[in-house]
Design brief:
With 302 residues, this protein is α/β, with parallel strands linked by helices. The chain folds into two domains: 9-175, 3-Layer(aba) Sandwich (Rossmann fold); 193-300, 2-Layer Sandwich (GMP Synthetase, Chain A, domain 3). It has helices at 23-31, 74-90, 105-115, 135-147, 165-175, 193-208, 243-250, 255-272, 292-300, and strands spanning 9-16, 49-55, 58-64, 93-98, 121-125, 153-156, 218-225, 232-240, 276-284. Helix 4 (135-147) links the parallel strand 5 and strand 6 (153-156).
Amino acid sequence: MSSSDAPFRCGYVAIVGWPNVGKSTLLNALLGVKLSIVTPKPQTTRQSILGILNEPQVQLIFLDTPGWLDAHNPYETFLKKSVHRSVYDDADLIVWLMDPKIPEEKDKLLAKKLAGINKPLFVIVNKCDLLNKSDIIASINQEINSLISSEFHFGVISAKTKKGISELKKKVISALPVSPPYFPTDQLTDRWERFYVSELLREAIFKQYHDEIPHACAISIEEFREREGQKDFIKATIFVETESQKGILIGQKARSLRQLGQATREEIEKTLGREIYLEINVKVKKAWRKDAEFIKTLFQEY
């Protein structure tokens, strides 16, 4: 059967797992473009990011979710709701991404939750490029089999080197429902440009600053104006929780903020393919991660 004769397959694929297992790297590898920010630090994804892969007779709609976690404040509750909505409501199938190690107690609890959702499940061990011993994969598979009684697909990949990505994609496609496309077949995502501007700024913060600073930052793109004959104008505000955090972000004689602005501007221009003028302000919003209304307003921007 030729590709044109095959039925069109389309569906939502939720990529889930604990923070820092490589979910965003996997999404970027599957799409072949950078859509989610990637840093060595955990909990960099704050919303479920929708990426669309269009191939002949196929539309894969990936949901890169924030890391699965226990919520301790309104901000973490928002993240948890985002994950649950992607998994329980939106997804047609689930890709559970794991580190290459024997499942811990938290993994066993997550396995039971995912097994009870009654959707096709792919259990994928990432970072196989870091493995010295192959027998640990068999041990992981055996442990997962003891936790999940229903059928699931088990695989091993390296999202970083793209090893196993092509095979995973083929198997995911075969599990998709027969359906017409949900989005135009030339569309890559459902997000606005201003969302990716905020993500690129946040990625630059994670790369430049350390400890609690990146996690204490919330970003609002207050203006995004295309100007005929001039550079696009983007005005961003970074909210932090304390004056000391604000001081660290700005730095002595504003050197740190200028460095951040330059790095972010270069990445935005590379992504948008045009020059921009970027203005960054820093403001204090005390304990914003505990302010449910502020969080709701902030994420409604996108």
